[in-house]
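pasting for the record
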Amino acid sequence: MRHINSTDPIAALATPPGRSGVAIIRISGKNVWKKLTPLLKYPNSKPISPTPPTPRVLQRIDLIDANNQTLDQALVVYFKGPNSFTGEDQIEIQGHGSPVVIARTMERLSQLGIRPADPGEFSRRAFLNGKTDLAQAEALMNLINASSLRAAREATKQMEGTLSQRLQNNQALLLEALAHLEATLDFADEDISPDDQLAIAGRLTKVAEDIGQLLQGSTLGKQLAHGFELAIIGRPNVGKSTLFNRLSGHNRAIVTPLPGTTRDILESPIEIHGIPVQLTDTAGLRETDEIIEEEGIKRAKERLQKADAVLLLLDISKEITNEDQEIIKLAPLDRTIIVWNKQDLTESNKIPDTNKLGVDQAVASVVISCKKDRGINQLTEKIASFFGSQPIDGEGSVVMVARQKENLQKTISHLASAEALLLHCENEELVAIAIREALNSIGELIGKTTHDDLLDLIFSSFCIGK
C-alpha cells in the first residue's frame, strides 16, 4: 500500500474482469480531467476542453491511443469533488468489456500519469476525505461479499451509518463521564462525591450494556456473513444424501441402497428464503467396525454438536429403531427439526408421536418425501423461520467483521477496569485512563483513531475498483 496521504490520480476497473457487454473504469484524483483529455475525442473530432464538463452528465466520447487511433466508443461522466465517492474529482468511463481494450486503456492511462489503484484505495480515499467512516467502509465490503438477501440488507443499513451512529452515541456518553470525572480532579484534595461517582458509573454501565448487546449479535453477524450451518443427521438409508441433493440443487452426494455410502462430510452453500446456509451431509450414525465409516461417524457427531441447526431424518414408513432413539439423545432439541422422510411409502400424512422417540418436549417436525418432492417447501419454510427468528438487537447494528468484534471486546475490558477502579475509590486518574482507552477502542471502530498499518490491513482486502 502506498503512502496514506497519496493524492496522485488513480484508475481501476470497477467491473469484474473478463468479457462483458460493458466495463467501467474509475479514475480519481486532483485535476484528473486535465490529465485524461489526451485519451478522449468527441465523435465529431471536436477537441476536448481541459476545463471539466458539467458534472454528472453522460457524454458520448471516443477513447484514442497515443497515435490518435480509436480504442473504443464510450460514455464518460465527470463527478466534481467533494461531491463524489472519494471526495476528489472523479471520472467513470463506461466502455465495452473487451479484455484487450481494457488493457490498452489502462496502459494509456499509465502513460498519462494515472497509476493503477491499490486494492481498496478508492474506499480509503473516501475515508480519508471524510466521505465515510471505517464501519461504513467495512459495510460496503460486506455488501459486495453478501451471500444472502438478509446479509445484503444488514450491510446496506450499516452503510447508511446505523452502526456508526450507535457507536458515536456511546462515545458521547463516555466523553460526558470523562468530563465529569476530570472536573473532580480539579479538587485533588477531595474524594469524589457519592453523587458524582454514581453519575459516572451510570454512564459507564449504560455503555457497557450496549456494547455487550453488540457483542452478543456478533455470532449472528458471523452467520450472516458466512452462512448458518445446517447439519443433516440420521441412521443409514433414511434419505440424508437424497435430501442434501434436493436442497442444494445438485447431485453431489452419492445415493445408493447400500448403508454407509456417505463416509465423509459434504458441504454446500445454499440460500433459503434469502438466508445463507451451509448445508452439511453426514455419515449415517450406527455401530460399525469399519475404520473409514467409523471416522465418518465421529466427524458427523462433532458436526452435530457445533451446527446452528440440525435436520434429524427419520423413516416414517418404518417403526422407530433403537438407533433412532440413540441418535435423538445426541441431538440438541432446541436446534433440531425432525424430518419424517419416505412419506411416499406410507398412506399416513400425519406427524408421528414423538413420545416413541423418548422426547418429552416440543420439537419442530415436518413430513416429506424426497423421492416425490413432497413437503420440501414446508421444510424450507421451517428452516427459514428458525434462522430468521434468531435474536437481532436492532437491524443495521449486527457486527459482521472480526476486527470490530475484537475492538468491542477491548472496549468492554477497559470499561470493566474503569468501573472496578471507580467502585473501589481508586486513583481517579487511573479511572480516566481506562475511560480514554475505551474511547480509543471505539474510535478505532469508526476511524477516529487510526494507524497506517491498520488502514493497510483493512483496505487491502477490498476489491481493486473499490
